[in-house]
Amino acid sequence: MDIHEFQKIVHQTRDFRRTQTIPKSPPAERDMLIKKFHPDFRESAYRPIRFGPNAGELTVREVADLLEGDSPLPADLELDPHYTVDVLVVGGGGAGCAAALHAHAQGAKVLLVTKLRLGDSNTVMAQGGMQVAITKEDSPVQHFLDTMKGGHMKNDPQLLKVMVEEGPSIAKWLLELGVLFDRDADGNLHVKKGGGSSRPRLLTCSDYTGLEIMRVLKDEVLNQKIQLLEFSAAVELLSDGAGTCTGAVLQDLDNKRFVVVSAKAVILATGGIGRVHIQNFPTSNHYGATGDGLAMAYRMGAKLLQIDTFQYHPTGAVFPEQLFGALVTEGIRSEGGQLVNGRGERFVNELDTRDLVSASIIRECEEGRGVRTASGRIGVWLDTPLLEVEHGAGTLGKHFPAMVRQFERYGINIANDPVLIYPTLHYQNGGVQIDVNGESLVPQLFVAGETSGGLHGRNRLMGNSLLDLMVYGKRAGTTAAVRAKAMNHGKLTLAHLPRFREEARKHGGPANITSPILFPAYTKKE
Ligand code: MEZ
User: How far is ligand 1, taken at its centre, from the CA of residue 463, in Å?
Assistant: First the structure.
């Protein structure tokens, strides 16, 4: 059947569905559903990590391979520095730019390096907003409680406390830099409600929130004349031989040459891992999201936390093919968009936590209530025209211009037709263990944003990643710069590499890949 034929049932059942209230699932039921259908619980996709700081722990095969992969460097690489700086920031997304700006503000000599162009990152693709407790009805305590609940109480409470408390000052900083957050008719900041949150607290820039924030951060990095190297991928960290991080080796992607940087502190802000396509999932992530920071930090001896849990955003596009995996913002569900199976039925409270909503969609599809496209993909409907019915014609165009345009390019008008969706790999819940200053267990190695772990527990709430990367970008940048003032440059060695290779040998050799992988296989020339 043509997809338009399938869509009819969504229109036919709309009036009835509008009268329905679906309660959130009780805890026992949600746990059962998540264990049965969420990809984090597919045992066959997991294996133990064989060696290194997380030896014996289970993670998905793709991540285990990445962590056990070999370095591209020979252990005897010449380590004369091409650059000598106070703070090296690796990653040109939100966390990296925030870290670079705050380190620079402390007077540090900063070098910002990025694998692609400045701003190419998951931050730029964040649509739905940034959670900050700024209204009278809300508080950082409430934000804390919502986040703990969403994370299944596995969040690091100290990291989370700092994030929710510093949210308002971060919002102020962004406003002062020029971010144009949405406002109401009186000019006050307008906040929206997100899934899993008890209060409206999302600051948005329609559905271009990350793009707008990055516009301003990029400008500021350029205005401040922070030294920048684009198309320069970090491939290995350096140490003084006694365990303190002292710099990194980059690869210039234009000529493949290695570039050595001596730094008093390194901040890894390399983002997430979606382009590793865990369990063959499509992803909402940008092309550079290949977990580079995880691989480098792990080889250097940093411990990872909750590296077995990933966020599969409930609404990734299934149709058209060109958009497979692209994000359809949760904002649409926050404004009343309903999820509808192939029989025209709702099956979950759309604003329940993402892991539960994704598990419910997968259940519908696995139990035969999904909708199949001509190319064999499967999904359920997101009733987007409902927003026009509930809130008036033009609602989607006004509040979700990015989403409207994304589908319009392929001849689909989401104000008239529902969209077919399925969970898409969106976020790495865990990552490198850090303290409240963003420092890992390796001295002078800082980590900020999605590369770090602990804050979000086993399921991140919508809008908490933008806040996380701003707060911990700032903390890492500031601490690294202050520390740098009081120290000298350390020796540059690759002392950890022979150790890592020897450990790998004892456990059957490194995984059969070179890591970081830098780009997904399908972007590489033969
Ligand atoms: O924080 C997110 O992941 C987010 C806001 C995504 C979205 O649905 O827009």
Answer: 6
Average pLDDT value for residue range 466-491: 97
Q: What is the pLDDT of residues 385-424, one digit of tens each?
A: 999 999 999 999 999 999 999 999 999 999 999 999 999 9
d(CA 354, CA 196): 8
SS3 track for 415-466: CCCCEEEEEEEEEECCEEECCCCCECCCCCEEECHHHEECCCCCCCCCCHHH
Residue with more model confidence, 279 or 195: 279
* Residue found under tokens 């997100």: 194
Nearest-atom number in ligand 1 for the CA of 127 is: 9
Query: How long, in residues, is the chain?
Result: 526
CA dihedral 144, 149, 154, 156 (to 10 degrees): 0
Phi/psi for 431 (5° steps) reads 160, -155
Quick one: which atom of ligand 1 is closest to the CA of 463?
1
Give the ligand 1 atom nearest the CA of 194. Answer: 5
Which tokens go with 100? Answer: 């670079």
Where do we find the tokens 């900063």? 110
Cα–Cα distance measured from residue 54 to residue 41, given in angstroms and rounded to the nearest whole number = 19
Cα radius of gyration rounded to whole Å, the chain:
23
Which tokens hold the place of 237?
Answer: 């960290």
Helix, strand, coil shares of the chain as percentages rounded to 5? Answer: 35, 20, 45
Alpha helices in 113-238 (DSSP H): 140-150, 157-177, 209-223
Q: Quote the ligand 1 centre to 207 CA distance (angstroms).
A: 9
DSSP 516: S
Q: How many CA atoms lie within 13 A of 463 on its CB side?
A: 33
> Residue type at 54?
N
Distance 118 CA to ligand 1 centre (A): 21
What gap in Å lies between CA 409 and CA 103, rounded to an integer? 41
CA distance 110 to 102: 10
- Cα 313 versus chain centre, distance: 11
**450: nearest Cα among 299, 291, 298:** 291
